[in-house]
Amino acid sequence: MNNQLVETWNVATKDYPFVDSESRIMSYFPHTHDEIEIMVIISGEWSFTTPENGVQTAKVGDMCIFMPQQIHSFSSLANDKHLCILKLHSRNSKEKLNFNLLRFENALLKKDDPFNPVLRTYIDALCKETQEKKIGYGFAANSLSNLIISEILRSEHILILDNYHKKQISASAKLLSDVNEYISEHYIETIYLEDVANYCHLSKYYFAHQFKEITNLTFYEYLIAYRLDNAKSLLESSDYFISEIATQCGFSNIRSFNRTFKKQFGCTPSAYKKKNQNKTHLYQD
After folding, report:
1. What is the CA radius of gyration of the chain?
2. What is the pLDDT confidence band of residue 283, given thresholds at 50, 70 and 90?
3. CA-CA distance, 88 to 153, in Å (whole number)?
4. CA distance linking residue 97 with residue 28, whole number of Å
5. Residue from 74, 73, 68, 54 nearest 153 by CA
6. Using H for helix, E for strand and C for coil, what is the string for 146-207?
7. Minimal CA–CA distance to 229: which of 176, 178, 180, 195?
8. What does the buried/exposed string (b/e) look like for 112-134 if buried means 16 or more CB atoms within 10 Å of the residue's CB?
9. How many CB atoms lie within 10 A of CB 223?
10. Quick one: how far is CA 78 from the chain centroid?
11. 75-112 pLDDT, tens per residue?
């Protein structure tokens, strides 16, 4: 996992969208991807962050719409968490559009906005096609995906970035890329704020301020999330002891690792490992 800024899993393809209508994920720290992503809030209350608009709150019925290469993160503010997540392929060989320069206004479509039910009708139909998988569902899903994209592009909410915001977003992406590069090489070690700030050619205080503004996380919160994500991958795919995984992911002791992991994922590392091993055995059988 050398670059956690760019999400390369759960992707949409040209002929089929990615749809997860039952997502219960608690939080996802800053990342980008090549698709248009739509999050429909089914239950709970959610906080999300973009460099352009800062921290916002989305409630039941609201939608978050993130355009390609737009940095964003989100987290649940309530235990009752349920999202419908769609990722839609945005490349079109016949119509030359630079989606990277487009943004949906505030990245938020409120429930009471007249455009919301228009989009929701297509989204519900898309979810139904991907769940029922009747004959021709692939064609139907791709058609609905294209309709959703065209509705977004034609809505009054779509914005084209000006030069100032282009530079601002480019600077934010560069900073996060540099941070990820440094962490990927040093996350096993003790990392001091001054070290990563120097790597980014910034003063410690300016770096801390900029990083918090972009991600709504302190650098150390981000570092812990990075370490936990690596630990989760090792728990899923390796036979290492829990203590070995804790050490390999930069945690000073297993007690700290257990406490931090449970706080983030709702279960201990050993319980998570056992659950995923059971899944593996089921697939093998």
Report:
1. 20
2. very low
3. 13
4. 28
5. 68
6. HHHHHHHHHCCCEEECCHHHHHHHHHHHHHHHHHHHHHHHHCCCCCCHHHHHHHCCCCHHHH
7. 180
8. ebeebeebbebbebbbebbeeee
9. 19
10. 18
11. 888 888 899 999 999 877 677 888 989 999 999 999 99
Please report the pLDDT score of residue 280 as a whole number.
Answer: 46
**In this structure, what token pair is assigned to residue 227?**
């370490």
CA count, 13 A, side-chain hemisphere, 186: 14
Note whether 70 and 107 are within 8 A (CB).
yes
How far is the C-alpha of 103 from the C-alpha of 125, rounded, in Å?
A: 24
Only one residue has tokens 């770096």, namely: 207
Place of tokens 């829990």: 242
Specify whether the CB–CB gap between 123 and 38 falls below 8 A: yes
Q: Give the other-Cβ count within 10 Å of 273's Cβ.
A: 21
Q: Give the type of residue at 222.
A: Y
Strands of 18-23's sheet in order across? 18-23, 82-88, 36-43, 63-66, 108-109
Report yes or no: 62 and 41 within 8 Å, Cβ to Cβ: yes
Helix (H, G, I), strand (E, B) or coil at 102: strand
The tokens describing 95, both together, are: 């119509």
pLDDT digits (tens, 9 = 90+) for 2-36: 445 667 678 888 889 999 999 987 778 788 888 99
Q: What SS3 class is residue 84?
A: strand
